[in-house]
Amino acid sequence: MAAALVSLAVADRVAVLTMERPPVNAMSRAFMGNLEAGLAHAAADPAVRAIIITSALPGMFSGGADIRELEGLDAAGCAAFIALGQGLFTRVGEIPKPILAAINGVCLGGGLELSMACDLRIAAESARFGQPEVNLGVVSGWGGTQRLPRLVGKTRGLEMLLFGEQISADDAFAMGLLNRVVPDDMLMAEAAALAKKLAAKSPVALARVKEAVQRGLSLPLPQGLSEEARCYVEAYGSDDAKEGIRAFLEKRPPRFPGG
Question: Is the dihedral of CA 49, 235, 208, 32 positive or negative?
């Protein structure tokens, strides 16, 4: 994995993927390949129980897709480029480990779409958000038209998508796009604290929570409840559940084995 594009570090059962492609972390094909490789490594590592995605560039999470790689494509090439991003961000959501986006600054287009594919989003106070694709005469293509309205509602989602303007971290938090907003100099400490708290929980339970929510949201309520019941039974049969119930009855902190 090219460290100049995306680096991976693991400590305390938390993997941190750090994007570093100056000046704006433009998402080229090579960049996306690096990001996917890092995510695959973290997902497969049994020592990793939570993942953080962030940026090493001051004030810049990501400006989105590398527009230079879009220019001049024919219809087939354009479709392939869109499929690349959609496929990767779909796989982000399918990773059973919790993924947290630590957004340290400008987060636009594909950068916002990447963050929305994550499970949780925490942002620095100075961060800015937007889906500006309409200003280029195109539409959001890596999930923006689908994930954004699901997170903030149709009214606010359409407003962001139609105007293509940037909003502040406080406004993003108010509409439900973010989980937390923190002072800039506290971002990584707060992200690490949240990730470590998740890493201490049952990996089996966390995976089943993600699965139940993601599958259930696309289903009518009765089928969604069936998914929930299935995930509960699967979790209940795990060693983690045995340890969790035993620890509760013995009035001690659980030590989840992860199976």
Answer: positive
The CATH code belonging to domain 6-199 is 3.90.226.10
Domain boundaries, the chain: 6-199, 203-249
Q: What is the CATH number of domain 203-249?
A: 1.10.12
pLDDT higher than 70, residue 54: yes
Phi, psi of 122, rounded to the nearest 5 degrees = -120, 135
List, by residue number, the catalytic residues. Answer: 113, 133
Q: What is the pTM of this model?
A: 0.95
> Tokens for 151?
């997170």
Q: Are strands 14-19 and 6-11 parallel, antiparallel or unpaired?
A: antiparallel
| Contacting residues for 30 by C-beta, under 8 A, at least 6 apart | 2, 5
Tens of pLDDT, residue by residue over 83-92, are: 999 999 999 9
Q: Report whether 31 contacts 68 (CB < 8 A).
A: no
CA-based nearest residue to 104, from 153, 67, 69, 55:
55
C-alpha span between 114 and 46 (Å, rounded): 24
Quick: pLDDT tens for 229-244. 999 999 999 999 999 9
Residues 6+ apart with CB under 8 A from 127: 61, 103, 104, 105, 106, 107, 168, 169, 172, 181
